[in-house]
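step 4 of 6: structure.
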Amino acid sequence: MSKATHNFFISSISDNNFEQCLKCSICTVYCPVSAVEPLFPGPKQAGPDGERYRLKNPRFTDDSLKLCLNCKRCEVACPHDVRIGDIIQRARLQNSKHKPGIRARLLASTDLVGKIATRLTPAFNTILSLKTTKEYKHRMLGIDRHFAFPTYARVTFEKWFEKNAAKKQSGFSQQVAYFHGCHVNYNDTAPGIAFVNVMNKLGFGVTLINDEKCCGNPFMANGMPQKALKLAFHNLNQLRLTSQQVPIVLTTSSTCTFTIRDEYNFVLGLDNHDVRDKISLATRFIYKKIEDGELILPPVKPDFKLRIAYHSACHMEKLGWSFYSSSLLRMIPGVQLIMLDSLCCGMAGTYGFKTENYRRSLKIGEPLFQAIREAEADVVVTDCEMCKQQIEAATGARVLHPIEVLAMALDD
Amino acid sequence: MSNPRNNNSFHVIVIGGGITGTGVARDCALRGLKVLLIERYDITHGATGRNHGLMHSGARYAVSDPANAAECMAENLILRRIARHCVEETDGLFISLPGDDLNYQHRFADACVGAGINAEIISTREAIALEPAVNPNLIGAVRVPDAAIDPFRLTLANVLDAEAHGATILTHHAVTRILTSGSATVGVVATDENGNRAEFHAPVIVNAAGIWGQHIAQLAGVTLNMFPARGALLIFGHRVNNMVINRCRKPSNGDILVPDDIVCVLGTTSDRVPLTEIDNTHVTNHEVDLLLSEGVKLVPRLASTRILRAYAGIRPLVAADSAATGRDISRGIVCIDHALRDGLEGFITITGGKMMTYRLMAQQATDLVCKKLGSKARCTTADTPLPGSEPGPETNEEDELLQPVSFAHRAAEGRHGSRIDMIHDERPEQRALVCECEHVSTAEVDYAISQLRASSLARLRRRTRLGMGTCQGKMCACRAAAMMAQRDGKPEQHIADLNTFLSERWKGIRPVAWGATLSEAQLSALTYQALCGTNLISSPTPSTLPQNEV
């Protein structure tokens, strides 16, 4: 019989975590895919129940695992702390039969595509928006034609920082490091710029991570564990080096944060314990500083008024950190905050781009979109860049990052 | 050989629905005999359903009983051919741990080779690479052609083939009298659970009742001294090993761990029990402690692996001396022609042996039956595949990608082999799961009810694995009972059966009820009692219900 189950991943299964499952099925109730897709067996079936059979024979790994969004809402719901999402993610990576195709490589290579695209903007953005390009992507690559691909920035965040901000950072007595993530660098630099402005106003200088690379999450989601592992090794090393000088590493992307903190260890099996607790979302860092009395929120523009609908991204839910972002927003005078029910938007990174997932992705997000329409807010705020993409496309609402709201509110 | 006169007349009556009895029934039926098999409860109720599921290479007996070991190896090769769908070719290791005598290892390896068993001493590093679950402190390892075999599937396949060749299988009937005429047996009286009696006649009776064979012999007026050696085993929630792991020493407690389907089974103990205790299969705390303390030496991870249940069976050993535990008694086949031994014509006892050698036991018994009946038919069981193991097209992975099959379909294929074609799961509702832990679909339950006569939950469990998984019947028992009630229109009977089934599950859980196992049992109890109110339903009344569990 095949011994394919014994590869490098098996080491992370040794704690038999899945046997704590009591088959209560609460995870399935909270699964956004199960709610709309009868072909998905649900987290309990695909996770702990399927795992027993996969331990016998990897032949029991089927394509239905690909329907999982990796939102981890099953893990949040589980009363026994079973790492259901990790089990599914790992099974998918371990036993994937298909070689990743062009689409998977294209969607996963955020760094490479970003580097090329930002050099070619705005031509690249125009090409992306052409009907023929969308048709080509739809038919040849399986990237849905309905989807507005993220546009690319003319100037990357790193270049902007180099030109506009780097020099003055040494003037601050306190320093934080910033892991900006690919989306801030190549697609939407606004949260990154807002972050630097806010931190400076709060009295912190910002250092970038030397040679930061993609966190690896898109490679995990698109069946390329070896690439993800390489990136994870690299980033862990760079983070270790940076944190020797600047022990606080802040982020604005919830998914990058969650990947480095949890997935590096639970899915890729890397030891990240020395780095894990040094990494925090900026909103959490600021909120805690204010809460501990170490920081006072600077004055806000007197006429600042904003009705905000806050959306808890799945990985924020998994981190348990929606509280920090929403509470920080509540501290801003003039903000009226509506907490939306915690629901998945259906995008899940690159999941919703794919032709076979596009409709399901919108169906998953529909209850959230409905809630957003009913909230009648000025803006939707979320910590996740891909939720932003999906919500904007599906509802037409303006979506901001909490740090952008803070930057807008603070008095010059 | 004359043809039996009527419906109650047969060429041969086989007593006992274990692997031996069903094997005899199949062999007799294949040789053209009119066969009746009588079983007190359900097939596999006794030792057949209460062992390791280990397909010995014979290595375990190579030192103490080389003839028996050679027999095991020969049968091992035959079963790989004729019972393909019941066998998983895992191979096995005999590991030596610190303190074990490495001289024994060499004696063992030599004895294996002497018995025709392909045993190979390998390095400890190689052993760990082959089977990462072994104790990393091992000091020696021998690789042997052990395998895993599913006793339920194997027995069922024998029943199906016997029936296909005209045999009658009568379950839930106890033999209460053996009819004699002069110095020959001529038939039996069988009594069902409601006390209804029926007489059956045959010139030859085969006693294949295992440990209960002593009682059957008594009914025939002859003596047979059995040696009831009880063995307890533990089932773990999932596989930790993919090869059979044995301890390379003189056979002792808790020194074999077998990967059986999606669980693994640790065993056994061996204790002589009085004949009055052979129906008691409760496992004691002492037995659990003994097994666990030895098991973690083989595979340290067992210490933190969830245990699903404990069970015990009684080995049908034939008393030879006053040995204390039964470890020293030969596992050789005992086939007694009572005409020669006791002057009682028409009565044969087939016992001893191993599940591994059941086919040979059946062959020897059937040869004797044929001799008595004057039939010259030859045994073909060594070459005739069992139903489910017929040669078919190998599953092609490329085809699977084109035509994806459901998870449950794959699981069912593992259980029913080539008979998967009889399970119709084309429609989504037929693929809906009844048992989620073991991936048993409504289609498979339908098949078991209509084709395998699964008329109670226990019978369904033995035929499909329903209720054998992690939750031990929390979700599936209720659903399956409802399906059965819908089909036969007897809801009261199935509600009572549900209670019986859950009590039986609890019996196996109780000796290991700690940690997640206990939490699971509590959640089950709440589900059934607080939610479904099963505790408000009166207990089953023995006269109307299938009492297929002791």
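step 5 of 6: annotate
 - The longest strand of chain A covers residues 174-179.
 - Confidence is low (pLDDT under 50) at residues 1-14 of chain A.
step 6 of 6: archive
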